[in-house]
């Protein structure tokens, strides 16, 4: 009888190793649930750490001025000049010069000169000169009173001033310009109005 009992215990031990007792009941369920809870807790902690890092990076960017855009909101009027390394978006009113090493978008009003990598006037009004390293784009329902110096020029709004374009100037069917245009390449769509002289030259990059 003792041998039989010992044999049954050995069998029970083997059954336990395989995950079941001699009656076929699972023994590892609770352990698996505990492991899952621990893993879920670790995942949640990692997510919290990532969220914390994102908040810290955002705060650092705001504190150092290294934000993606400088924005003048619709209900804001700024009396003074703006100088920034980031993109600038103007929805409100700026009475002063605007300078950026990146892109400038005007959807409000500006009284002052604008210098940027690219300058776009989208449903906005500007009184002042514009100088761009690349593109000046003026959409329909937009107006500029001032001169332009740029690499490429796209006009579908109204300009009262001269445009010196070192590459291609494109006048859309809604374009109106009261002034002179000088460019290496010129495209004028039907419906555009030019009240001034047009000069197409091979190289005008030496001109300021």
Structural overview:
By secondary structure, the chain is of the alpha/beta class. It folds into 2 domains: 2-64, no CATH class; 69-200, no CATH class. Helix content is 25%, strand content 39%. It has 2 helices and 22 strands. The protein has helices spanning 2-17, 29-64; strands at 69-72, 77-79, 82-84, 87-90, 93-95, 98-100, 103-106, 109-111, 114-116, 118-121, 125-127, 130-132, 135-138, 143-145, 148-150, 152-155, 158-160, 163-171, 176-178, 181-188, 193-194, 198-200. Strands 1, 3, 4, 6, 7, 9, 10, 12, 13, 15, 16, 18, 20 and 22 form a 14-stranded parallel β-sheet that branches. An 8-stranded parallel β-sheet has the order 2-5-8-11-14-17-19-21, with no helix packed on it. The longest helix is centred in the first third of the chain and has 36 residues, at 29-64. The model is unreliable at 9-24 and 58-65 (pLDDT under 50).
